[in-house]
Structure formats: structure tokens, C-alpha cells
Amino acid sequence: MSTDIMIVGVGGQGTLLASRLLGQVLTAQGFDVKVSEVHGMSQRGGSVVTYVKYGQEVTSPIIQEGEADYILAFELLEAARWLPFLKPSGKLIINTQKLNPMPVITGAEEYPADVLTALRASGADVTALDALTPALEAGSAKAVNVVLLGALAKRMEFPEEVWLNALEKTVPPRFLEMNQKAFALGRS
Question: How buried is 172 (Cβ within 10 angstroms: 0-12 exposed, 13-18 middle, 19+ buried)?
């Protein structure tokens, strides 16, 4: 039996760094960990999803519809896109930031109204937060990923020191203090 986590967003939001950090935490706790990254058009702001599975023995990194225990969504539309993968008892942690996809930028479509309302109406256990404001408070908009990991860490049962050690091992030293602050803000 495994615990299944999906990290979803668009290219450039730091979803891949978040998956590496999470992998460090889980490995340090002695779990078998499998990570699978699907990039899509990630370098052009396209959809990015990472599957992280952990447990005593994990045979496949892929998460099927209805299997995710957690979905960590870096953007509202990406949360809606991947919602079918959340199991009925799963938890959806969402950054309320909106990033316009190409059809919205070109004027071919409009960003859907009330995405968050629809997600809550789905019956999912939704935690929505503005991760951009604390990221900016920590020192950079790029720290949104670590703010969201702090919010995830609050819901998981691993000691805070394990998360902070993973940050030290994964983040370049010149960005460590900023990311520690972003993690603390997300956790609170």
C-alpha cells in the first residue's frame, strides 16, 4: 500500500524542485519512493504533473484516476484539470493564483469564473491559499513552491527538521534562508 501525491502546475512554477524536496523528505523517513515527472510543454507555461508515491514497497510511480491521497496544485485551472485523480478521502491543497493559459492570452477563450467554488462543490477536502503573498514576503515569487510544501507538511506527520534538512540538501545555499522562511510561512 502506498500514499500517492500529485504535484501539478505549469512550467516555471517549481513543481520539479518541489517533487525533489518531497522525495528527500520521504527517503529520509525510510520509505520506498517512486517519482515520475510528466513535463508537457513545461518550458512554455504548459501543464506539468509529477507523481510521488511512497510506502514500504512501491512498484509503479504512476497514479491513476481516483488514487491520489493529495494533490498539491500550483494554479487553479491545474487543480480543476487533475481533480479526477483525487480519491474521495483525498486532500487538495491549492494556490489561488491564476496563470492564464495560451488560449486566454490570445483571447480565444476566457479564464473560467468561480473555479475555486466549483472545486469546493465537488466534495473534495480543499485547502486554498494565496501562496504568492507569503512567497513575496519571503523574498521571491519563485518561492511559491516551498510555501505550498509548507502547507503540505502541516498535513503530514513528518518532523519539521526532516523538511528543513531536505531544503538544505536541495536548495542552493544562496537561496536557503529565503526558502526556509517560505516554508515556515506555508506551514503556518
Answer: exposed
* Structure-derived torsion over alpha carbons of residues 152, 157, 163, 165, reported in degrees to the nearest 10: -170
pLDDT reading at 129 higher than 90:
yes
Q: Which CATH architecture has domain 2-187?
A: 3-Layer(aba) Sandwich (3.40)
For the chain, which residues make up each domain, given as ranges?
A: 2-187
- The C-alpha cell at 156 is 503530514
Residue range 160-169, pLDDT digits in tens: 999 999 999 9
| DSSP character string of 117-176 | HHHHHTT-EEEEE--HHHHHHHT-GGGHHHHHHHHHHHHS-S-HHHHHHHHHHHS-HHHH
In angstroms, the CA 103 to CA 74 distance is: 19
Residue 150 has pLDDT above 70, yes or no: yes
Residue 176: CB atoms within 10 Å: 14
